[in-house]
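Tokens as discussed.
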């Protein structure tokens, strides 16, 4: 044994990477092994970290990203070089787009050979390729820099507006040795990784003045508001102000969807009719029709609360920007509200209520019908009624019709429990998010998946079974993308581009790995299968047979398809 002053013990890059992560309370790695990082994964496990191995890196990356969203700590995804890195890169880009903190750590090949393009094993200039898709990208070349490099990556991922960070670890770095005492000293613990950023008092006053001048105010809560973990203050602000609010899809549950002030059931009406709109961690991107045009009726006066100053005026002029972390901004606004309360116009509130009542009655009728085969409404009603009894359950959701209908029919009661296609409307997040959410929360997950959407990550059923995760996947099986009824206009033998094998039995897939499969053709089958699966707490898949003609092109996004003069008269 040696003492600290005269250490002959050596450590190496492998150990220092694990030590640096653990030193910052990171306890889980989502990844897929191979040269040069297999031993890194083995060592992580040996050193008490959890290593969750996937079948494709994109899904590992999505798991890491959703873990980051749930915890405000960066989720870690570990991949091999070039192809593994590229597979993970989609998840990194998606995380950056959605403002989820994650770090994609990829091994890379010999710099000297890569830079001269001499054809190394998995040769690729990964650092430069990652840059446009990441909030920040770094490479560590010396073992002594691992501590500071990992700290830098963590801070970049979670501070300010969160995002994806790329960290390049050349194979040579991992086997580099250094004195172990010096290595220990080189570790850096990130202090105050998510610092509060207080809004300027005058910006708060300006926002409150504008809000008070409103006749028909509206609050829109985005997933940034959910991420902020300022749930009590956000709820208090909404309730004290009495202003109706709309949650964006991943902000559902920040206040329970059944809340009297929720205007979700009158969305089109409030967007068109509001005069002052307060955005809380929500961006005026395509999901909000860029804050202008037909959806919005007359031009609005906007208040926008955001961590990032460059978000302001992105699409339309913002009259009252409030820049800071959402928790601090809302606390300041709440404080101002207490000293001079607001009272929204009774006529506005009543008009919204009457729209809500009308739309809810229409929806209730649709939900009450019992068509055979099931349609989206009848299947989702069955799921809604089961999930109502389990507000703790995480819900993952992707697809086109499956996403659009589930978003409006499945109520959320708690924050950060709904994980979906997000800012891009991406397919393929399903099983990665499901694994990430189950591992991170230790609570059950129900993934509501279009049959096409599921296909992008379906092989992770094996991962779910391998780690015995309490994930129930429900496939909305309508034989294809949007619907299963298209025909090949040429009369040829190939099916239409949107059509899959008819009557596929997805439930058999999970049985191959020891999970429980259910085949549900009626709402009551679906309901009892879901109850049983949740109670079992084991990997399960329900193949829910949906009328193949029930869906519409692109769900509610039909109008985003460019019109083809030749086919769409
Ligand atoms: C990565 C990616 N590829 C392709 C698409 C285009 N796309 C949008 S929705 C969708 C699938 C819709 O079908 P399904 O999941 O079965 O849902 P349904 O409408 O049938 O309920 C596809 C392929 C996408 N959004 N993302
Ligand atoms: Mg489908």
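Sequence:
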């Amino acid at each position: 044994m040696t003492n600290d002053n005269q250490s002959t013990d050596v450590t190496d890059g492998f150990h220092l990477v694990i030590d640096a992560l653990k030193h910052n309370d990171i306890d889980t790695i989502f990844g897929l092994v191979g040269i040069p990082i297999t031993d890194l994964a083995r060592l992580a496990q040996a050193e008490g970290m959890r290593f969750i191995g996937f079948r494709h890196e994109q899904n590992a990356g999505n798991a890491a990203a959703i873990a980051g969203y749930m915890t405000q700590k960066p989720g870690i995804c570990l991949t091999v070089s070039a192809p593994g890195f590229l597979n993970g890169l989609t998840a990194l880009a998606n995380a950056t787009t959605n403002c989820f903190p994650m770090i994609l750590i990829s091994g890379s090949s010999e710099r000297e050979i890569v830079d001269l393009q001499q054809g190394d094993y998995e040769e690729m200039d990964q650092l430069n390729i990652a840059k446009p898709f990441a909030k920040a990208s770094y490479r560590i070349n010396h073992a002594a820099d691992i501590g500071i490099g990992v700290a830098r990556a963590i801070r970049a991922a979670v501070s300010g507006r969160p995002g994806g960070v790329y960290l390049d670890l050349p194979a040579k770095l991992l086997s580099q040795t250094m004195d172990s005492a010096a290595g220990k000293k080189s570790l850096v613990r990130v202090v105050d990784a998510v610092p509060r950023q207080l809004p300027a008092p005058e910006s708060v006053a300006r926002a409150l003045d504008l809000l008070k001048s409103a006749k028909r105010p509206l609050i829109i809560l985005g997933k940034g508001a959910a991420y902020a973990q300022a749930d009590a203050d956000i709820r208090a602000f909404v309730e004290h102000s009495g202003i109706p609010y709309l949650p964006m899809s991943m902000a559902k549950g920040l206040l329970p969807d059944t809340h009297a002030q929720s205007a979700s059931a009158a969305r089109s009406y409030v967007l068109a009719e509001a005069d002052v709109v307060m955005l809380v961690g929500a961006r005026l991107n395509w999901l909000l029709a860029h804050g202008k045009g037909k959806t919005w009726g007359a031009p609005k006066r906007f208040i926008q609360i955001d961590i990032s100053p460059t978000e302001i005026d992105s699409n339309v002029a913002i009259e009252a920007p409030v820049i800071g972390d959402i928790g601090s901004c809302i606390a300041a606004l709440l404080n101002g509200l207490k000293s001079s309360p607001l009272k929204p116009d009774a006529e506005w509130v009543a008009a919204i209520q009457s729209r809500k009542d009308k739309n809810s009655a229409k929806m209730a009728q649709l939900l009450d019908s019992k068509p055979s085969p099931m349609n989206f409404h009848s299947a989702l009603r069955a799921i809604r009624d089961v999930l109502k009894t389990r507000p703790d359950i995480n819900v993952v959701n992707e697809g086109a019709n499956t996403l659009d209908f589930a978003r409006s029919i499945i109520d959320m009661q708690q924050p950060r429990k709904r994980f979906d296609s997000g800012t891009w409307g991406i397919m393929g997040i399903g099983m990665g998010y499901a694994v990430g959410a189950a591992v991170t929360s230790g609570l059950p997950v129900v993934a509501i998946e279009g049959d096409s959407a599921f296909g992008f990550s379906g092989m992770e059923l094996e991962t779910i079974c391998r780690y015995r995760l309490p994930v129930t996947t429900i496939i909305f099986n309508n034989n294809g993308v949007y619907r299963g009824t298209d025909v090949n206009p040429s009369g040829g033998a190939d099916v239409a581009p949107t059509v899959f094998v008819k009557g596929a039995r997805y439930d058999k897939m999970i049985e191959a790995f020891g999970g429980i499969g259910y085949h549900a053709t009626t709402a009551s089958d679906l309901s009892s299968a879901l109850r049983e699966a949740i109670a079992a707490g084991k990997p399960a898949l329900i193949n829910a047979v949906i009328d193949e003609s029930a869906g519409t092109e692109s769900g509610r996004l039909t109008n985003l398809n460019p019109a083809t003069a030749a086919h769409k008269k």
